[in-house]
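User: I'm new to structure prediction. If I give you an amino acid sequence, what do you actually give back? Let's try with this one:
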Amino acid sequence: MSVKHAILILLSQSPRHRYDLKVSFESMVYKQWEINAGQIYTTIDRLVRDGLVDASSEEETDLRIYRITPKGEEEIQKWLLEPVEKPLLKDDFYFKLLCVKQLSSFNLEKMVKQQKEMIIKNILELQLLRKNISFTKENETILYLIDGKILHLEADMKWLEIIPD
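Assistant: Good question. You get back a string of structure tokens that encode the predicted 3D arrangement of the chain. For your 165 residues, that looks like this:
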């Protein structure tokens, strides 16, 4: 996840102050990813330094308001068009499976069973989340994200079924 790009996206909608960026970010991701205020602050400072964002102060409140620059708009377009590369074999469970083969005795069946239980728990959590989000134009993307993650988890479950005991 790119906090930098999320901030640029939010600023492309309207100028905002730092705390508003935190609240808007958490709202955008349906409170599924909390973000530390310090992370927002350091990221926005870098965006200003790099010329992607401008800052100004409100006279009556002394709050700094941030606005995206044309260079920031270009950065959004560039980032959105870059395909997202997925690591082919870098996965914590896959790595554990490789490691277990190095041991002379280990209960692989128990390891696989616990992983399946975790996947089932994750699927149930996602299904509950999906059930609690009504379909609207604004919610369409998060629903696609949830459905995609469920499909990935179901594929992982099928993969675990082929691992011999």
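You can read the tokens as a compact description of the fold. Here is one thing that stands out. The beta strands are 53-57, 64-68.
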